[in-house]
Amino acid sequence: MNTNKSEKFTTATQMDNRTCTVFLNGELDLSVAPDFRQVMEPLVENGDLDLILNLKDLKYIDSTGIGILLSILKVRHGMNAQFYVREVPAQIQKLFDMTGIAKFFASQENSQ
Amino acid sequence: MKEEMQKVQLNLPATADFVDIVRLNLYGIASKMGFSYEDIEDMKVAISEACNNSVLYAYNHEDGLVGVTFEVSPEALIITVKDEGESFESYEKSDEGATLHGKELGEAPIGGLGFYLMQALMDDVSVVNESGRGTTVTLTRKLTRSEEKV
Predict the structure, then answer these.
(1) For a 10 Å CB count at each end of chain A, is N or C smaller?
(2) Counting Cβ atoms within 10 Å, is residue B61 exposed (0-12), middle (13-18) or buried (19+)?
(3) Residues on chain A touching B21 (C-beta within 8 angstroms)
(4) Does domain A10-106 bear CATH number 3.30.750.24?
(5) According to the model, what pLDDT value does residue A62 have?
(6) What is the span of the domain harbouring residue B113?
């Protein structure tokens, strides 16, 4: 448990012929929101692949980050394309539950 | 014995790049006070949301400062986030109705969650907005002693 160090936000993308998984690492906050949007934009628009965010190594998210996830949910929903989050750390799940975004992820899962 | 209150003050540029520095300081102070890991994570979110609002709305993209004060007492940590900017637009319409609960995806607004998170994660939140003279957000979290106190 090393929370006393601020970790630079990075992403790694893995694709196969059915899914695109983006691994998030570090702190997703206001300062890196534009970078994250830029990484996600072309992936979100590709409706042929299921889009998955793996949050295992995400240390922190703020309301800006949650706002980006909400806009991705909207776009994917509008395209009738899948979007999931995986391996959500407890502290981040707590924020998803508090804000109410959790139910949108859950309904994506159920419609699978 | 007189009640002890110690202060730590930070002044930072009101840009997104310095909000992580505020979190690092919070971590140091709160862990020294004996707050739990979960409490510190909650406070990290709340303090960042207060700073984000100053960064986003106070100075209308011009240079400015955010002052963060940590008041440490045996019972609580009181954090003040202050800017000298114009306004705090986003606060005016944020309340519990700002969450996504009970909303369909199509009608869910992007944004407005920051103030709700501050309220939900802290014991007390107050926002004082003096027109033209800035906004002060005060966040309080009580220190609950763990049972195995030494």
Answers:
(1) N
(2) exposed
(3) 6
(4) yes
(5) 95
(6) 6-142
